# Entry
Amino acid sequence: MKHLLLSIILINLISCSEMNQTPTKIAPISKERIANAVIYEANIRQYSPQGSFEAFTADLPKIKELGVDIIWLMPIYPISTTKSKGSLGSYYAVSDYQKVNPEFGDLDDVKTLIDSAHKLDMYVILDWVPNHTGWDHVWLQQHPEWYTKDEQGNPTHPIGTDWTDTADLNYDNHDMRAQMLEDLKYWIKEVGIDGYRCDMAGMVPTDFWEHTIPELRALKPIFMLAEAWEPHLIQAGFNMVYGWETHHLSNDISNGHKPIDDFRRRMEDVKHQYAPEAILMNFTSNHDENSWNGSAPERLNDALELAAALMYTVAGMPLIYSGQEYDLDRRLLFFEKDSIDRTKGRMFEVYKQLGQLKKSTKALDTGVDAASYQNLNNSASDKILSFVRQKDEDQLVYMGNFSNEAVSFSVDYTGILIDFYTGKQVDLTQELVLAPKAYLILLNN
# Structure
């Protein structure tokens, strides 16, 4: 009897353990979830003093407060030490596609992060580096024919770049392509991720994506982001590409380096360049911009909030880079340990409110069945950017003063709208005044 009781207890303990390890179910990613989504780029190394998955996971409820739906983890794989840069190397010099960087934690920590995100109804995508590997990658030892060779027959780093810490992959080799597909499948099948952000996707042959993405989607619905701007990558299966030109122009008009008309033309070009279901990722910062071109406050100065609101209201999906919600005002080190000061300041509330806005109106929907975008004429068009977004009965008007002086102006719009922030009525038949770098977001309900 004693042995029987011990056996029952053991079976129950094992059953409970298995139950605790059962991944949380989350609704498959869909066009409806994508339509009003916000994406967050997580720099695990620099997010916390610990630089760990565990520390980031503990903050997921705060990230959820910002209205985030998709978490993009910068590369989590082991980093090559051969020819590496700095003391810690680049995340993008991968030494094994199916392993976890012990600097951040282990595979169980990754699974816990994903499960915790799913419990909060957030998806997790991994950063994938398909164009090159680090020099320590097992493929280089076992399959040197999978790499591009120089005139002397030696593997080489990607031509035309300074990425000397990486070895260029040869996409003429179909065995390499097949293994790349298997490694991509691994994280979906075994770990439960929800898609990929693909580094330098435009440097990889398009036919690889045309074959690979449907294979991955046969496993489950996934979200695919290309680090590229080219419209043809949408046809190849990606959901979203980078709005690089939108980003650069927002910097330039905010600093008076280019006229607002350039931004208006950009919005018209987007309509003609991209398929209707295409999503552009809009941002004031990301890991490259922050480390190499300056923090968002450094580049935008007094126009920081003005530009952030613009990225949320133009057509596309807005991105928050780690630390932006905490007023990150310096360049994070790329090849060394650094840390973000996670003290809440002005921008946490700004991003929280903009996230609520994104979810509160169909006028900001993106992707399939997106809201329309139309320039709104105003009497100070060299200083004021104004436009209308609309879907069904929902309408939103954005007006931003990109000049360094207060501007009095009128708009070509008849009616009364509601100020999103104050809840007060604004009569657009009357003359309006905006302070320098100020903006209005108005809704019809």
About this structure: DSSP finds 16 helices and 18 strands in the chain. The two ends are 70 Å apart (CA to CA). Residues 4-20 have pLDDT under 50 and may be disordered. The first helix runs from residue 2 to 21.
